Amino acid sequence: MAVSKHVLNLIEGLTCSVCQSVFVEPVRLDCEHNFCKSCIQKFWGKQRQAVSCPECRQVSPRRSFTSNKVLVNLCEEARQLKEDGSLCEEQGENLREDTEREQSLCEEHREKLILFCEEDEILICAECVDSPPHADHRFLPVRKVVQKHKDQLTLSLLLMENEKKNQSELKQQQEREISELEELTVSLEKDISAQFAKIHRYLEDKEKHLIEKLRRQKEEDLLPMEENLRKIEEELVSLEEKISNLCVDIEQQDSVTFLKQKLKRCKESDLDKEEGDSEKGEDEEDCLKFLDSDEESDIQSAEEEVIFPKRRYTEFQGLFLYPVWKKMKQIIFPAPESLTLNPNTAHRDLVLSERQTVVGFAGKKSQRPFDNPERFDTTQCVLGSQGFMSGKHYWEVDVGGNLRWSVGVASETANRKGMIRLVAEDGYWGVHRSDNKYVATDSRVALTPSVNPKIIGIFLDYEGGQLIFYNTDDLSVLYSFRDTFTEKLFPFLYPVNDGFGGVELKLCHSET
Questions:
Q1: How confident is the model over 433-456, as pLDDT tens digits?
Q2: Which one-letter DSSP state was computed for residue 15?
Q3: Is 63 helix (H, G, I), strand (E, B) or coil?
Q4: Residue 335: which residues within 8 A CB-CB, separation 6 or more?
Q5: d(C-alpha 357, C-alpha 378), whole Å
Q6: On the CB side of 397, how many CA atoms lie within 13 Å of its CA?
Q7: What is the DSSP letter of 213?
Q8: Range list of H helices, 114-254
């Protein structure tokens, strides 16, 4: 038996940790670990500069090793022993059996271990039962102890299997959430890009139209100005020529020549004028008179300029973007809707404006029929005339400086008789203000707006099951509801009476 152990230990000690076989051309690294030459070269082949030992991971700055000649003969002997596979296998099997037999015997009495001491928690043989160390101890058969621990392991395994199942389900749920998030963000990105692309096209078209209109106006006003400029330039050329002639005449030293030239030019000028104004027989004195009048006429010629009407360009200055911005509402979806209130639903203490957009408290009870099934008979609410069963909608409610109010949406079949609860379970979704506290009517979640809202924006995505309330003063989200809508939804306004009759709520109408 000792020989077989020696052989196994020898083979194990001569085994390369990389290929798990007996060394072939063994080499030794600086860290004293041995490997097959081809194994270490192949292992280092994946590394760039510094290399490391496969076992201890010691780093070496260079690829260096030395041949281990001592192991060469030992490896050859080990390979010869290993060639007799049946012998090695038989010896290994015998070794395992002997080991198991040794482990199942009591070290003291060399008897088989058949009992388990519960106090000392060790295995003992029959001889150990009466020994002093185990006097008065409780013992169990090994079989029962094994079964007990297997039962515990089975229970642990069952619990782990359940936990694994729960974790698998949780993993699937998390993966679905991640997938939904991906789908939602991709959809939102496309929607955002489409909405902004529409605005970009609109602004580009408006910019192009405005610039073209400006250029047409410029061309219209520039044409007469350029024509007048051409005439002025021609007049300047003529004046320069006349000035040059006058300078020549003034510099003339001979008096007779001077007068003859002037008379000649006077006659030439007469010929250029209308025929018949003077006759050829005029004397020199008449010509001199004409000369004087012509020079004065040239000097006193009128100077005029064409001035373009600047008032035509006022639409291209100042707030030229304002009308563009106002008309931009036409391309925003959903655009703010102009809704009205339904007087048939209004509580008898409430009064509506003539346009049915403002609700407040009447000084006395109105004469509306009390038994109208549409009307709120106890809670002082009113519904909108328009209901929604699909699509996306947005409207605004002016709450002013009122300290107590509720606004939101109500389902068509929501209870309107007696005291009502503003909760989704009863068909109401909204936000409420009581003095300086803001809450979501359904969950009673406290809201903390940075500024007290004067106008509440309400966005409804019916198919998407989303209802969002905005503080339009700073464009922040007050609260967002998520639900599944199955009925027609109507806007509701609840101007809570403050005791002074001054509470008013108003449906805002967008200006077009």
A1: 988 889 998 767 789 888 889 999
A2: B
A3: coil
A4: 329, 394, 510
A5: 22
A6: 28
A7: H
A8: 142-251
Q: Could you tell me the CA-to-CA distances from 383 to 40, 73, 175, 176, 426 in Å, in that order?
A: 85, 102, 42, 39, 15
- Give the side-chain half-sphere CA count within 13 A for 165: 6
> How would you classify residue 234: left for phi > 0, otherwise alpha for psi between -120 and 50, otherwise beta?
alpha
Residue 205 has φ and ψ, to the nearest 5°, of -65, -45
H/E element, 461: strand 455-461
pLDDT at position 278 over 90: no
Asked whether the CA dihedral 44, 48, 50, 52 is positive or negative, the reply is negative
Question: Both tokens of residue 196?
Answer: 């902004």
The torsion angles phi and psi of 464, rounded to 5 degrees, stand at -75, -10
| pLDDT grade for 72, boundaries at 50, 70 and 90 | confident
Distances in Å between the alpha carbon of 48 and those of 65, 344, 491?
Answer: 17, 85, 72
Specify the pLDDT at position 1: 40
In sign, the C-alpha dihedral spanning 271, 276, 281, 285 is: negative
Residue 234 is which amino acid?
E
Q: Which secondary-structure segment (H or E) carries 73?
A: helix 69-83
Nearest residue to 81 (alpha-carbon basis) of 32, 9, 132:
9
pTM over the 0.85 mark:
no
Can you give the pLDDT at residue 131? 75
Q: Which amino acid is at 445?
A: V
Say if residues 353 and 362 touch (Cβ distance below 8 Å): no
Read off the DSSP letter of residue 313: G
The runs of H, that is alpha helices, within 252-392 are 255-272, 284-299, 321-328
Task: Compute CA distances 465 → 20, 267, 399, 482, whole Å.
Answer: 64, 100, 25, 6
As a whole-number percent, the residues of the chain with pLDDT over 70 amount to 80
Q: What is the pLDDT of residue 2?
A: 44
Q: Give residue 272's pLDDT.
A: 61
The amino acid present at 344, given as its one-letter code, is N
Mean pLDDT, the chain, whole residue set: 81
3-state secondary structure of 459: strand
Give just the sign of the alpha carbon dihedral 16, 18, 24, 25: negative
Which residue do the tokens 């509470």 mark? 503
Helices (H), 273-369: 284-299, 321-328
Q: Is the peptide bond before 54 cis (omega within 30 degrees of 0)?
A: no
Lookup result for tokens 């104004």: 277
Higher pLDDT, 337 or 113: 337
Give CA–CA dist 493/505, Å, rounded. 7
- Return the SS3 of 139: strand
